[in-house]
Design goal:
With 298 residues, the chain is α/β, with parallel strands linked by helices. 44% of the residues lie in helices and 13% in strands. α10 (257-263) links the parallel β5 (238-246) and β6 (264-271).
């Protein structure tokens, strides 16, 4: 969606699993055309929201393609295909890993076009160890949550095809597998998933996996992550300006700021009291304001 204004900047937004580009449906127009919502047209950005390789409407790879390879594809897409010399990247879930990889490996110093990034999940991590009591408490909580919620990760990163035969043959099974994550990772009230989403929203996201028959290749992304062993090497840092939108993600929360700043050049940080893992879909207005606040600092 081409943005308003005389020379809108490009904003590349990347989703994750079990989400899709549908997550961004409610935020594209406000970001591209803020004047339609009481804002300034000159703050509009051109919004690009591709499906990850093997997800939704993107083509299916023959072998697993991971986050580092996706970042290289995204940089080529933005510069060589769409013609943007520079762009800003935003992402959550796997999108946060791809986005961080763009900032780390595809910035102007390394011949790329990424000039800034915004993340709403701590995906691509550095090698820093927790030191303070607060950081140690976060690390213990993160380990506990992975033990409670991480069974799917182990399965999808080690035996994705075994799971795929069941999911691809059962729409109900696929729906249940995805909805369990939306229920567990979202900021819902009174254990009621419909306190946060409508049935239409939930089913629209599920249908993207069903009609494109992409559940199997979407899970390959986990296998590729394990094979790539993606992290920020010791001594390296994402040096482009970084914005952090810390929503109430019960599964993968942000650590204390010091740990992030070890590996990221953070110029913007905001803690949000509402909204969880799927922030753009859960709290679209707050998400738009969050991203716009970061963009205003660049």
């Amino acid at each position: 969606e081409e943005g308003s204004g005389k020379n809108p900047r490009a904003l590349l937004m990347t989703h994750g699993w079990p989400g899709s580009v549908y997550e961004f449906l409610q935020v594209i127009e406000p970001l591209a055309h803020p004047e339609r919502f009481g804002g300034d047209a000159e703050q509009g950005v051109s919004v690009i929201c591709p499906s990850l390789p093997g997800y939704g409407f993107s083509s299916k790879p023959k072998t697993p393609i991971g986050q580092m390879a996706t970042a290289a594809l995204w940089d080529k897409l933005m510069r060589d295909v769409l013609g943007y010399d520079t762009y800003i990247a935003q992402g959550g879930d796997w999108g946060s890993v791809v986005t961080a990889a763009l900032g780390l490996h595809h910035n102007s110093k390394k011949g790329g076009g990424c000039v800034a990034i915004h993340i709403n999940m701590y995906g691509l991590r550095g090698t820093e160890a927790p030191e303070s009591a607060e950081e140690i408490a976060w690390a213990k909580h993160a380990q506990s949550m992975m033990q409670q919620e991480g069974a799917y990760f182990q399965l999808q990163s080690t035996k994705p095809q075994s799971l795929s035969y069941a999911m691809m043959d059962s729409p109900v099974g696929l729906g249940a597998w995805i909805l369990e994550k939306f229920h567990g990772w979202s900021d819902i009230k009174n254990n009621d998933i419909e306190s946060r989403y409508t049935k239409h929203q939930l089913l629209s996201n599920i249908m993207i996996y069903l009609i494109t028959r992409s559940f199997n290749t979407s899970t390959w992304y986990y296998r590729a992550f394990v094979e790539e062993l993606g992290h920020i090497p010791d001594g390296q840092k994402v040096e482009v300006p970084v914005g952090v939108g810390a929503f109430q993600d019960k599964f993968l929360s942000f650590p204390p700021r010091r740990m992030i700043e070890h590996s990221y050049n953070v110029i913007h940080w905001r803690d949000h009291k509402s909204g969880g893992h799927f922030a753009a879909l859960e709290e679209p207005a707050a998400f738009v304001e969050e991203v716009q606040s970061f963009l205003a600092k660049l």
